[in-house]
């Protein structure tokens, strides 16, 4: 998959050093994948939420942080929408 929005991830890693290795591992795994459906995504990341509209929410650092992405399966693109603490996540409007 092509991963867009890496700058948000980079900025987040600078602020939250404890998340660095988790995010870098997630990035590498996503870029090596070619999901065609949400089911394939869930098979790789069983704890991810897929609320619909080609979106996915990933737990980072044991659910301390949340990562919201838009997945364009046909184009093989993952777009980072937001990354934040679990508290910040509770205020996001996932549509």
Automatic annotation (TrEMBL):
Any Pfam family hit: HigB_toxin
GO cellular component annotations of the record: toxin-antitoxin complex
InterPro entries associated with the record: Toxin_HigB
One Gene Ontology MF term: endonuclease activity
Protein name: Addiction module toxin RelE
Classification lineage: Bacteria, Candidatus Nomuraibacteriota
């Amino acid at each position: 998959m092509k991963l867009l929005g890496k700058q948000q991830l980079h900025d987040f890693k600078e602020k939250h050093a404890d998340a660095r290795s988790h995010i870098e591992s997630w990035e590498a795994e996503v870029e090596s994948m070619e999901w065609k459906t949400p089911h394939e995504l869930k098979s790789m990341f069983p704890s991810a939420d897929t609320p619909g509209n080609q979106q996915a929410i990933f737990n980072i650092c044991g659910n301390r942080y949340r990562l919201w992405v838009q997945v364009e399966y046909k184009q093989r693109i993952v777009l980072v929408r937001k990354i934040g603490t679990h508290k910040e996540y509770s205020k996001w409007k996932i549509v």
